[in-house]
Design brief:
The complex is a heterodimer of chains A (449) and B (340).
Chain A lengths: L7 H24 L12 E8 L6 H18 L25 E8 L4 H13 L5 E4 L3 H14 L2 E4 L16 E3 L4 H16 L4 E7 L2 H16 L3 E8 L7 H8 L5 E5 L3 H12 L6 E2 L2 E2 L1 E6 L2 H7 L7 E4 L8 H14 L5 H20 L4 H8 L3 E2 L7 E3 L6 E2 L2 E6 L10 E7 L27
Parallel strand pairs in A: 1-2, 1-3, 3-4, 4-5, 6-7, 6-8, 8-11, 11-12
Antiparallel strand pairs in A: 9-10, 12-16, 13-14, 14-15, 16-17
Helix pairs in contact in A: 2-11, 3-4, 5-6, 8-9, 11-12
Chain B lengths: L1 H31 L6 H19 L2 E10 L5 E7 H6 L1 H9 L1 H23 L9 H23 L15 E3 L9 E3 H23 L1 H11 L1 H6 L4 H23 L9 H16 L4 H18 L2 H6 L3 H16 L14
Antiparallel strand pairs in B: 1-2, 3-4
Classes of the chains: A alpha/beta (449), B mainly alpha (340).
Chain lengths: 449, 340
């Protein structure tokens, strides 16, 4: 029988060796010459695309991924070059970013904040991603933005519409190209007044989470300012599937407009239920009953089918826009994938190109240098017309589209028609606006890791 | 008054779906003693039978239009469904329009087959295992089934409209001088559910097969000793339960556009319905289904949510807790079940 003898010296020795072993990766990281997180040293640079690949927004995530892959292709000089041909900044040459070939890794957000943070963390720590882009939910965007700030990488948000992303939760390392709930409301209100009149009684059904509250607050404020009365606001659980119990009270409320502050599957179901109850045929207060969906997406419109006919809403981008950037993007995307791009695809494509361009202009991948290059940057040619990345809150300001469900669609993609392109000035607000965190909201300082 | 009646109708409508799913669940538990967490997935597959038939009937051939352009400016490829070219535009369009009710004919054999494969291929191996094992394996199966559906149909909801003739609003209150308009298809759904429930009860009550099954549910061993192959009959009951869930799904498709996750949305609630009604009790499942549907509808009214915020989200579970504390066997459960 063997006997193990342990001495004090032996334990100390083993402890020192084990400690050194555990600390080794940290020592390498700390003592290496890296000036910032994941500084690219080889011939390539890795971008992290964090999109919902499973779960209810998987189709939207898939569309984002297609656009991101297209952007990488164009950055590396492959394909037809896409919006590199129309982008007003000419820093990108089609030879990667700063001469390094662009590669990418993908993560699955599952539209869950914890899963999205985990996948972003993995891409940053294991795959060396220097920038994270994508997403289809504000809850996810805010969570991942916080993570990127801590990790010292740039976050180029995908589809996130809550005011909070660039409001009270804004971060120095985070940038949003997509518009927000306040902008939707500011763009929609004048059109609603023109089309539906200033004397309306609105009933709101609102998804019970950060985006829903933000959207409802914005649209109620904008419509009340033009004379509408908000009859009621009912919060509906995010997990709701049948909205008939919420729709039925609207019929007896005296309201003549129903505002659905819902997104995705919630919106498809609540709108379908409202149509089933004959709301669009009703006459209340001697006016035709109307339904408003403040935030539209092409995939939601496809899901809602014929129910969206004549229903007003807003969008960040629509493939039917006829500016040069949009035409070029639709051509590149359409020829490669056989369908027009959604607005979430366009925002991810634009964000990837904007990041690459900022690196070129800054001459570095250092997130603080890139952030500086993006702040106050004015550009055109990516599909939305003239756009400006405001330095104060890292929010893009550009024209907002007011759209309506197409009355006579000519093909399967012709689901929405553009009613008006609202100029950027009309949707611009002060960086310390109360809906965006007021004076207390701050970007903090840039973190390079 | 109108509002109360409207919520009762909503409750009956929701209750119809709960009752149909719970009926199948409790039938399986009562016969085979299995807690089938894949039952929601059967409801979802039923809805996708409607989607599949709609797509099948809409299969088209392409012709290139000389005048219209597609989104890239190329000549538009116009799609014409084969049924429209075979039967003429009007009859063809009507066939596509009625695809959801027609899907019932497709769903019955498909769902029974799915049920048989599910029971013979997987679940029978778990009869002698713990309920926890059965729950795990059937839950896993549910996830596999929904991922398969997502792979083929995508994650986005798919509109499956009711026939035009049944998609309007009926003014039910006109006979009583009330303002009570209600969607026609939801009334159809309730009537259909009532018919299916009646059919299942009649089948069990008035046929020899049903009598043997009921005897087997009461005392499986004795029926077996009489030389009757009760296992085979129970397998058929599993297939029937699958068909009932599938039919509930087919007819539900026009109410809310089917998506791959819809089964999970109903599963937990249906389990609560079974527990409240009494595990293994068919009338209990139906009664609890309608009762909880109505309660849920009333709990979602503005009055209820402002009086007790969040009541709409917890009402069903609250009732379940009260029932389980005061009467563990459920409203109509057999004495001794869940009471040990």
């Amino acid at each position: 029988m063997s006997k193990t003898t342990m001495t004090r010296r032996g334990v100390l020795k083993t402890g020192a060796v084990a400690g050194a072993g555990v600390a080794l990766p940290t020592i390498f990281t700390a003592s290496s010459a890296a000036a910032y997180t994941n500084e690219p040293t080889g011939s390539s640079v890795t971008l992290g695309f964090n999109v919902p690949q499973t779960g209810p927004y998987a189709d939207e995530g898939n569309d984002e991924l297609l656009a991101q892959q297209l952007a990488v292709e164009h950055l590396n000089g492959e394909g037809d070059g896409g919006c590199l041909n129309t982008f007003t900044s000419k820093a990108l040459k089609g030879n990667g970013i700063l001469g390094k070939k662009v590669e990418f890794v993908t993560g699955d957000t599952q539209t869950k904040s914890d899963a999205a943070r985990a996948s972003a963390k993995s891409m940053i720590e294991k795959d060396g991603a220097i920038m994270i882009n994508g997403g289809s939910s504000s809850g996810v965007a805010i969570a991942v933005q916080g993570l990127c700030q801590e990790a010292g990488v740039i976050f180029m948000a995908g589809l996130t519409h809550s005011n909070d992303t660039t409001g009270k939760d804004r971060k120095a390392n985070g940038f949003r190209h997509f518009f927000n709930a306040y902008m939707s409301a500011a763009a929609l209100a004048p059109i609603l007044e023109k089309e539906l009149g200033a004397d309306r009684r609105a009933y709101h059904l609102t998804a019970d989470y950060t985006w829903g509250w933000s959207q409802q607050e914005s649209i109620a404020a904008a419509t009340e300012a033009m004379g509408w009365e908000t009859v009621n606001n009912v919060l509906t659980p995010l997990a709701s599937t049948d909205f008939s119990s919420y729709i039925a009270p609207v019929l007896n409320s005296g309201a003549d407009v129903l505002v659905l502050n819902h997104y995705g599957g919630n919106m498809v179901n609540s709108l379908t239920n409202a149509i089933q109850f004959g709301m669009m045929e009703k006459v209340v207060n001697n006016k035709d009953f109307k339904i408003v969906v403040p935030l539209y997406s092409e995939l939601m419109a496809a899901g809602a089918g014929e129910n969206i006919k004549g229903v007003f809403g807003s969008m960040n981008y629509n493939w039917q826009l006829q500016n040069e950037g949009s035409k070029q993007f639709v051509k590149s995307f359409g020829e490669k994938y056989g369908k027009p791009p959604s607005n979430s695809a366009q925002t991810c494509y634009a964000q990837t190109l904007l990041y690459a361009d900022a690196c070129e202009r800054a001459g570095t991948f250092n997130p603080c240098g890139v952030a500086e290059a993006l702040e106050g940057f004015e550009f055109d040619g990516l599909g939305n017309g003239k756009t400006m990345y405001r330095a104060d809150d890292h929010q893009c300001f550009k024209d907002v589209l007011v759209v309506k469900g197409a009355e006579n669609p000519t093909n399967q993609y012709d689901t929405l028609e553009i009613v008006e392109v609202t100029p950027a000035e009309q949707v611009t607000y002060a960086p310390n606006h109360p809906m965006f965190g007021g004076d207390e909201a701050s970007l903090g300082t840039c973190n390079a890791g | 008054m109108d509002a109360i009646l409207l919520q009762i109708l909503n409750g009956l409508d929701k209750g119809s779906a709960y009752a149909l799913i719970a009926l199948g669940l409790t039938l399986i538990f009562g016969t085979l003693g299995v807690v089938n967490f894949a039952h929601g997935a059967l409801f979802m597959i039923g809805a996708f039978c409607a989607v599949t038939l709609q797509r099948f009937l809409s299969l088209s051939y392409q012709t290139v239009s000389e005048t219209e352009k597609d989104f890239l400016g190329n000549p538009l490829k116009v799609e014409t469904p084969y049924v429209e070219s075979w039967f003429g535009p009007e009859i063809g369009a009507s066939i596509i329009d009625w695809s959801t009710p027609l899907a019932i004919l497709l769903a019955i054999p498909i769902m029974m087959l799915v049920g048989l494969i599910m029971e013979r291929g997987l679940i029978k191996h778990f009869y002698k295992r713990e309920h926890a094992d059965q729950i795990l394996v059937t839950f896993g199966l549910a996830i596999v089934l929904q991922e398969i559906v997502k792979y083929y149909f995508g994650a986005n909801p798919i509109q499956t409209p009711a026939p035009d003739a049944l998609s309007g609003v009926a003014n039910l209150g006109a006979w009583f001088g009330l303002e009570l308009a209600y969607p026609v298809w939801r009334i159809v759904y309730f009537c259909f559910a009532a018919l299916v429930i009646f059919g299942v009860f009649a089948f069990l009550q008035f046929t020899t097969f049903g009598m043997v099954v009921r005897a087997g549910m009461a005392d499986r061993e004795t029926v077996g000793l009489l030389g009757i192959n009760i296992d085979r009959r129970f397998t058929i009951m599993f297939a029937i339960a699958a068909a009932v869930a599938g039919l509930a799904g087919v007819m539900y498709a026009p109410i809310n556009p089917p998506n791959y996750h819809m089964g999970m949305d109903f599963l937990v609630l249906s389990f609560v319905v079974v527990v409240v009604g009494g595990m293994g009790s068919l009338p209990g499942a139906v009664l609890a289904g309608f009762m909880l549907g109505i309660l849920e509808s009333f709990a979602s009214t503005t009055w209820a949510t402002t009086t007790i915020p969040g009541i709409n989200q917890i009402i069903i579970y609250l009732v379940a807790i009260i029932v389980l504390l005061t009467r563990p066997r459920g409203l109509m459960g057999r004495k001794g079940v869940m009471e040990e």
